[in-house]
């Protein structure tokens, strides 16, 4: 069994940025040389998230609209009193979706559905430089 890891750097546009990272993760996994196992994709930071969705413009809008209802921007978050950075909703949305996902790897391929893309969600109120860690465990 082997463990392999790589780091993806990305610049985001800020809140509402939903980036399809399927291809970059796929090529990272290919350079690992590992064919069977599990791939974990993790974003460092508490105001971004990783999940899967069908990456098409309608759903990209929908996910932002629904997140606005689930954790509205104008709620009186205690976090704002503490730091004054006015991104309480960003932290809550990130906590609900989660910072990572694991995908099975079989025969060198990620076992994703045709309409299931790996996506990175920028939830912070400003553009950020992000690091996403791809870890492959297998043989
Ligand atoms: Zn904050």
Descriptive report:
- The longest helix has 14 residues, at 57-70.
- The chain has helices spanning 22-32, 57-70, 78-83, 88-97; strands at residues 2-11, 17-20, 37-43, 48-53, 100-106, 109-110, 117-122, 129-138.
- The radius of gyration is 16 Å and the shape is elongated.
- Strand 5 and strand 6 (109-110) form a beta hairpin.
- The protein has one domain: YjbQ-like (Jelly Rolls), CATH 2.60.120.460.
- The N and C termini lie close together (5 Å).
- By secondary structure, it is α+β, with helices and mostly antiparallel strands.
- The protein has four helices and eight strands; from the N terminus they run ββαββαααββββ.
- The strands form two sheets. It has a five-stranded antiparallel β-sheet with strand order 1-8-3-5-6, covered by helices on one side.
- Zinc ion is lined by residues 79, 83, 85, 87, 91.
Short description:
This protein is an alpha+beta fold.
Q: What's the SSE blueprint?
A:
Blueprint: E1 2-11, E2 17-20, H1 22-32, E3 37-43, E4 48-53, H2 57-70, H3 78-83, H4 88-97, E5 100-106, E6 109-110, E7 117-122, E8 129-138
Antiparallel strand pairs: 1-8, 2-7, 3-5, 3-8, 4-7, 5-6
Instruction: Please work out how many helical segments DSSP would assign.
Output: 4
Helix-strand makeup class = alpha+beta
What does the overall shape look like? elongated
Mean pLDDT: 97
Descriptive terms for the model:
about 30% helix, five-stranded antiparallel β-sheet, Jelly Rolls, elongated, alpha+beta, single chain
